UniProtKB/TrEMBL annotation:
Family annotation (Pfam families): SpoVIF
The protein, known as: Sporulation protein
Superkingdom per UniProt: Bacteria
Alphabetical list of InterPro entries matching this protein: SpoVIF (IPR025942)
Length: 84
């Protein structure tokens, strides 16, 4: 993809593409049935999105994700953060 595409995304979201790509790489091959892994990912996405996550919300998200970890992607977590 061209640099301008990434610059536009960074400008609109305030999130660097390096952060997004690092997170995406960490998601590959991750075990989303493992609670520790899921909590780490939730915290990373929350930090990148600049969205605080209460302990209650994190617990709810972990329960939902570990129940069906095969269907997890970054969009799912982002939607959960936005719909809290």
């Amino acid at each position: 993809m061209d640099n301008q595409f990434f610059k536009n995304i960074e400008k609109k979201t305030g999130v660097s593409m390096d952060e997004v790509l690092r997170l995406a790489n960490s998601l590959q091959g991750a075990n989303f049935k493992d609670e520790k892994t899921v909590r780490r990912v939730i915290r990373q996405v929350a930090k990148i999105a600049n969205k605080p996550v209460s302990k209650e919300l994190e617990d709810k998200m972990v329960k939902t994700i570990t129940k069906d970890g095969s269907k997890l992607d970054m969009g799912t977590i982002t939607n959960m953060l936005n719909n809290r």
